[in-house]
Specification:
Layout lengths: L3 H6 L12 H4 L12 H12 L6 E4 L3 E2 L5 E10 L2 E10 L5 E2 L12 H6 L7 E2 L6 E7 L4 H17 L4 E7 L16 H9 L9 H9 L7 H10 L3 H13 L7 E4 L2 E4 L4 H18 L2
Parallel strand pairs: 7-8
Antiparallel strand pairs: 1-3, 2-3, 3-4, 4-5, 6-8, 7-9, 9-10
Helix pairs in contact: 7-8
């Protein structure tokens, strides 16, 4: 469920609604939900998307959209502990389906995701009044997250010292990474944890955390050990997890640059170009 296949396909239309189809819309039934055969749709999507039998599929009833000829069709996927929500759209006659995103030209294209992102009291670096905020959902046990972290830590402050603020949200994928949810402290610890990622196992995570704390005079090792034992920050981590799920984050790293979704470990030269383009847009349209 963490593969890029589902994550990337979410923005692509699977079947286009053609001009010829417009005539069919005139024949819409009085109760469009009655034309929706959920079993047939599931069979079709399983074939199209190559969903294996172990993936459970639940299809909600269609909902109205801003477009009069399209209904939103939420589809919920689950496989073991992993889950993902996907929005499809279906014509009111039940004949055509597509997977795409509807944008309102009079609103911020990332408005819906921005409403779900909360950065208050979260660890961050960069100025609080920066025009761009990069919110990073990361997992301390994810190798791609480690590379992303190195890139951000070494390049953002140097290249965009006044323009970009980076906010970290912990998103441990427990089904795959069994020790990630223990990892809380911050930026020095953040760097150290990724640097020693390969050495940390579920059975030694506490010892490794305390090993790091030995050289930190401002850290009370006894309180830190108690914090780890009591899982004192678990509620905060779970809050980040719930926020990520609402945003349909299903892979790490996933970042949001002023709401723009960026999935995976992006090469710095690519991310730098995106930041420059968004800065130019911000400077042009914020006057």
């Amino acid at each position: 469920m963490r593969t890029s296949q589902l994550a990337q396909a979410g923005r692509l239309a699977l079947l286009a609604l053609t001009v010829a189809a417009a005539g069919a819309f005139a024949q819409q039934p009085a109760h469009p939900a009655a034309a929706i055969d959920k079993k047939a749709i599931e069979d079709y999507l399983r074939h199209l998307e190559l969903w294996i039998p172990g993936i459970q599929v639940r299809i909600d009833d269609p909902k109205p959209t801003p477009l009069p000829d399209l209904l939103e069709l939420p589809v919920h996927l689950s496989y073991g502990q992993a889950s993902k929500d996907v929005d499809y759209y279906i014509s009111k006659d039940g004949r055509y389906i597509l997977r795409a995103t509807i944008f309102n030209l009079r609103a911020n294209p990332f408005e819906d995701d921005l409403k779900l992102i909360h950065t208050e009291n979260q660890p961050s670096f960069g100025p609080a009044d920066a025009p761009l905020t990069l919110v990073l959902f990361s997992d301390f046990e994810c190798p791609l997250c480690r590379e992303e972290a190195k890139s951000l830590r070494s390049n953002i402050a140097k290249t965009f010292p006044k323009e970009v603020r980076v906010v970290f949200l912990d998103f441990p994928l427990d089904a795959i990474h069994p020790w990630a949810q223990h990892a809380e402290a911050f930026w020095d610890y953040f760097d150290w944890m990724y640097e020693h990622q390969a050495d940390i196992k579920p059975e030694n995570v506490k010892d490794k955390i305390l090993e790091w704390a030995k050289g930190k005079p401002d850290i009370d090792s006894a309180k830190l050990a108690q914090c780890v034992d009591m899982r004192a920050t678990e509620a905060e981590v779970n809050h980040s997890l719930e926020e990520g799920k609402k945003l349909q984050v299903d892979a790490t790293p996933t970042a949001f640059l002023n709401g723009r979704r960026l999935v995976g470990n992006m090469p710095w030269q690519n991310l730098e170009q995106i930041i420059k383009l968004d800065l130019e847009y911000y400077r042009t349209h914020s006057k």
